[in-house]
# Entry
Amino acid sequence: MRRFGLIGFPLTHSFSKKYFEEKFTREEIADARYELYPLHQPDELLALLTTYPDLVGLNVTIPYKQSVISLLNHLESEAREIGAVNCIKVTKEGLIGYNTDAYGFENSLNRFLTTTPAQAFILGTGGSSKAVAYGLQKLGIAARMVSRDPTPPHLAYSEIEKHLKSSNLFINTTPLGMFPQIDFAPQIPYHLLTDNDYLFDLVYNPDETLFLKKGKQAGASVRNGWEMLKLQAEKSWEIWNS
# Structure
């Protein structure tokens, strides 16, 4: 039996286990199991590998996409360039880090947009934001990162309004609005949004976050992170089995 799983903390929001269990059933994959491994500290990964020597691959979620890098033996080139890891392959030579978030985001966003914005606001500056910035760069879209505690060149949320003319794509990479704290949303000027704007939320639980609800009410086009999750999960599976 080959063991796969997800590390991060907390993991109550995650659909990854359900997704892979359904995949294993649907595709009649009998030699694999996928579990959730909530870690209070990233270095607990090493003890996890000792406890479960049959681990073959892991996904990584918040807040460890950057801090886990120091525990790895090798970084795939794209993960190194992004500076964040959400997929680990366990090999005899050690742990290899990959980033499949960028792949999932880029392809999902490309299917969502009907026009290509010149610039986007990336809400948040954590590990997921780095994959998003990388994906936007590949699509030829400039990005401005927005933070609650900005340092140049990042913007504060209060500065978004004066840059609206150059950006009509908002991407939430923060956990704001994620189950169970569904009554929170990034503080963007929703009252100024129009039907020319796009809101993309990496959160997929709930299906429609407060961020997306407020955007939809203003007439904006919205998309959650479910398709991105599926795309990055399938890319991870491809890596683990290559």
Q: What stands out?
A: The longest helix spans residues 226-240. DSSP finds seven helices and twelve strands in the chain. The radius of gyration is 18 Å.
